[in-house]
Amino acid sequence: MSALSELDDRGLLAAFRIDTTKERAFSELIRRYQERLYWHVRRMVINHDDANDVLQNVFVKVWKNLAEFREEANLYTWLYRIATNETLTWLEQQKRRASLSLSDEEDNGLANKLKSEQDYDANKIEWKLQQAIQSLPEKQRIVFNLRYYDEMPYEKMSDILGTSEGALKASYHHAVKKIESFLKGI
Amino acid sequence: MKRGDHIMEELAMMDAPILRSLSGHMPYVVPAGYFETVSHQVTLRIMTELEPEITASMTRNLPYQVPAAYFEQLPDAIMGRIAAEDTLNVEMSVPNAFTVPDQYFEKFPEQVIEHIRAEELRARTAVQRPKKVPLFHNLRLAASVALIICAGFGILRINNNMGLRPATAKVDFNTVPRDAISAYVIQNIDDFDTELIVSSMGNGEGILDPALDNNASKAEIEAYLNEDGWN
Fold first, then answer.
1. CA within 13 Å, CB half, B15
2. pLDDT at residue A174 tops 60
3. Nearest residue of A to residue B21 by CA position?
4. What are the boundaries of each domain within chain A?
5. Dist CA A55 CA A79 (whole Å)
6. Per-residue pLDDT tens for B117-170?
7. pLDDT band at A81; cut points 50, 70, 90
8. Considering only CB atoms, which chain B residues are within 8 Å of A119?
9. C-alpha pair distances (Å), B25 with each of A132, A157, B2, B86, B210
10. B168 near B208, Cβ under 8 Å?
11. What one-character-per-residue DSSP string does B137-189 give?
């Protein structure tokens, strides 16, 4: 393990700003956050290849803007914000593509992708939960995922999504109710 | 996956027993080794999309030549290769036309071990061919044997010269004391041997008693023997 892996985020940023250590610092940053960001993206886009594309977009954007990153903000929060925005942008592009293709699958695109996933089993509760989550509006889906899976505090969620904590709590509450009803109904 | 207490309490307050009961495990599959490749993929994209000038300057400074548009085409080339390898794997996964006897692979290790044991046994019981001994070694051996034989003869000659001859009856009798001979005769001789002794005495062999006249007759000798209590 390199010495860079022992640096905290602030040290990593400092190493990124030095030409001789820039690339290694960036590689270390990817290694540190890739899994968390990957799952944040994948829960939204479902398919692995799509998640990979979005994740690469995220880190390319990080590379472009990291030099100007203000250290007052939390790096972790900043990365999540980029990932959320890139994911929503990608989903929007998919919707436009679907509408342009005159297909009837506009609203069923993600549901179909879910069913084509490896080891998909409609009888298993964890797949039913994913179905329930995909039925939520996009932003509510993000709130539910960040709270339920990442166990993120509302304060951090508010920094990422630019929404008040109260609104986020209400959004999460509604999401939980819908999902419980969905799961009870099946 | 253990859930945080604050999350579980919140779900309890929201009356969400099903969500509380779930582990939070994601059912999605991630390709093996994926996370080891992310950094490399991102770096490649950055080099080709964002910093072609840097890439170009790197190639200018190096003595090596890179084909034109190599880096731009690289992602597609890699994907094409992956697709080709996937096709190859599919082709190789097609079952071949050959059949294998039932349980062949299960029995195979045992058969190999038995074969090895049989080979070892054969090797142990085989008559070993005499080893080829070098000529020089044979000569040395012959010379040693000759030397030993000669030494033996030499010792024998030396012994003979010193008068150490094997004993004969004639010589021993002349050196054995009279009393010893008498004792022996008394113990071992009987009437039937009398004639033998007489005939021996006549030849000048055997025991010669100085008391006896060398010209004594046969009858005189018999009488002498009887008187001395030979019986």
1. 5
2. yes
3. A125
4. 1-107, 121-186
5. 11
6. 888 888 877 655 556 666 778 888 889 999 999 988 888 887 776 555 555 555
7. very high
8. 27, 29
9. 15, 21, 10, 30, 135
10. no
11. HHHHHHHHHHHHHHHHHHHHHHHHHTT-PPP-HHHHHHHS-HHHHHHHHHHH-
Neighbours of B193 (CB within 10 A): 14
Spatial distance between the Cα atoms of B176 and B200, rounded to a whole number of angstroms: 17
| Residue in B27, B31, B49 closest to A60 by CB | B49
Shortest Cα distance from B50 to chain A (angstroms)?
A: 8
Residues A41, A47 contacting (CB under 8 angstroms):
no
Topology of the domain covering A121-186: Arc Repressor Mutant, subunit A (1.10.10)
How many other CB atoms sit within 10 Å of the CB of residue A25?
A: 22
Domain chopping of chain B, boundaries: 140-165, 176-227
Among B18, B26, B28, the residue with its CB nearest the CB of A184 is B18
pLDDT, tens digit (0-9, with 9 covering 90-100), for B74-104 = 777 777 777 787 777 776 666 666 667 787 8
Choose the CATH number for A1-107 among 1.10.1740.10, 3.30.559.30, 1.10.600.10, 1.10.10.10.
Answer: 1.10.1740.10
Nearest CA in chain A to B42: A56
Interface contact A184-B26, CB threshold 8 A: no
Rounded to two decimals, what is the model's pTM? 0.56
For chains A and B, CB pairs below 8 A equal: 90
Rounded to an integer, what distance in angstroms lies between the CA atom of residue B212 and that of residue B220?
10
**Contact (CB<8Å) B50/A60:** yes
